[in-house]
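User: My instructor asked us to take a sequence, write out its structure as tokens, and then describe one feature of it. I'm not sure where to start. Here is the sequence I was given:
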Amino acid sequence: MDTYGLIGFPLKHSFSAGFFTDKFRKENIDAEYLNFEIEDILDIRRVILFNQRLKGLNVTTPYKEKVIPFLNNISPEAEKIGAVNVIKVSRKRGDMYFYELTGYNTDYIGFKNSFTPLLKPGVNYKALILGTGGASKAVSQALTDIQIEWLYVSRSKGKNNGRVIYYSDLSQEIIHTHNIIINASPVGTFPDVESCPDIPYNFLTPDHILYDLVYNPEETLFLRKGKEKGASVKNGQEMLELQALAAWEIWNS
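Assistant: Let's start with the prediction itself. The structure tokens for your sequence are:
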């Protein structure tokens, strides 16, 4: 039986485990999907050494960037983005100590294919990306590739590289000139369902698009507040499904 899995911390509510377990059952695939909750990225070595049938890993918070130094190879798109959410594990001659890890980024594929149908022709879009972690890097690259200007919104004063503003900077003018707001942070994820990113929701209009990478709950407080102002909203469920299917193709190519 082949093994696939997810590394991250914490892993209380994993989309991937449910998605792949259901896929294996429906398609009669002889495989298992395990959650590997590791408190330190160094523990990835233990995960690989003690799971001899491991063929692939998904990577989630907080390791999408931290895992890169542990890889033997990285795909051009993942290197460009600077974050990895999929690892293909290749064994050499069945030797548990001789393996090769190749990193990919399917968050990019999932987000781009899920998000672009929301766009209307002829509209001049600008985006705010809430959060500066690994997922936000895939989002920013996708926006760049479809020629949408963007800014990161961060809580940390140490991350200003010219494309970062802070939550305290979110004036009415900035909200009105940025008609796309994407939550790429974990804020609002179950069980913390009464939390939402600290933006001035009263400045939102029906011309705004709010996209939340969070999928649990189905409607986050962030999206609910946007909907109350007439904004178009979408959660991260489809993105996750698309990135998972892309990961499966990578692992079995």
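For the description part of your assignment, you could build on this observation: The two ends are 18 Å apart (CA to CA). Try explaining in your own words what that tells you about the chain.
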